[in-house]
Amino acid sequence: MRLLVILFAAAALAVATTAHEHHGEAPTCAGGSGHVLAEFRPGEVTVDGHSDDWDSVEASEFALLPALDPDEDKAYPGGKVAVKAVHDGVNVFFLLQVDGAYAYTKGESNKCPSVALMFQVGEKATFYNMGGCKDVPSSCTSKSCRGHEVDIMHFSIGNAIPGRLYGGNHIDNAAGNGNDRFGHLVDVYAWNPHCRYLDGVGPKGFVDDDNPYGKQDEKGTYYFEFSRPLRTRDQFQQDAQFTIGHPSNMAVAFWYPTDGKAWSNSDHYSASCNWLVLDIQPSSEAAYYRPAPNRSWDAATAFALLLSVVAICISIFLGYRFSRNRSTAQFTPLEQIQFAEERH
């Protein structure tokens, strides 16, 4: 099964969601921080729901452990998640690949697989507790939780149709809120699980005749593709801003309806127990590129310079001779010349 997602992260965020259950203290985890490499590969990847154009991109694989209890014995049974990333100097692209039996219940997002990416925005934002601000919903504000901001992209399959673009549609763009009324793609900023604010509500427009392109419990692989700008016009510190050549922190989460049971907000697997390092690399060609001297250009320049010098010298010489001749020459009025001719 292949799903297609494209996200415009500059959307405004305003609608609150139901909070996660309280996470408590961060659990201990044997694994360290992982690494995701985003190479400069312009024009190689298209967000079209097909993974063939990602074949040459190296993947980083991570075990999916329960977020609240990262015990290896309780890891996601379908295997690891493969994370790939590239950029073209303007946008960054992600592919998440997870094996698993096909699970789909139309209109019930919590009974379908779901995936999310989280990026650190504030300097004090922690991986655990989605930013780690200690405030509760009644007291968390941009002032009291300043520095704990995280940027989250979350996509649910529930009402989405494979192979279609979601996010940034013209109708919602015209409304100025970036809402995705045709799918369940949300752009969230948060200070903790209880203080999350998102743009995007329950989707509309599902067509009954549309086939979800899969058979229940059939073995396969889920593909999720994301695209977002490296830099956005965010004025409220709600979107992560990426810089080529500088690492950024990110995380990957995956929800799956085990045994057909609906998952809860906190019932997800995480690809790590801490931030993953997203390394957005500059072009390798640019690092080693040294323009070769253009000998034909140099010769032409030298010849043109020589002609310019010669022209200047000739101008100076002619100007000098003209001024000298003008001071010694005798001037004869035209009337005198005509009179002389008449006398002869």
UniProtKB/TrEMBL annotation:
Question: Keyword Phosphoprotein: yes or no?
Answer: no
Q: Which SMART domains match?
A: EB_dh
Q: Which domain of life is it from?
A: Eukaryota
* Residue ranges that the Swiss-Prot or TrEMBL entry lists as coiled coil: none
Q: Does the record bear GTP-binding in its keywords?
A: no
Q: Could you identify this protein by its name?
A: Cytochrome c-552/DMSO reductase-like haem-binding domain-containing protein
Q: Enumerate the transmembrane spans.
A: 299-320
Molecular function via GO: heme binding; metal ion binding
Q: Which UniProt keywords apply?
A: Electron transport, Heme, Iron, Membrane, Metal-binding, Signal, Transmembrane, Transmembrane helix, Transport
Per the UniProt entry, the signal peptide is 1-19
Q: Which residues form the Cytochrome c-552/DMSO reductase-like haem-binding domain?
A: 51-270
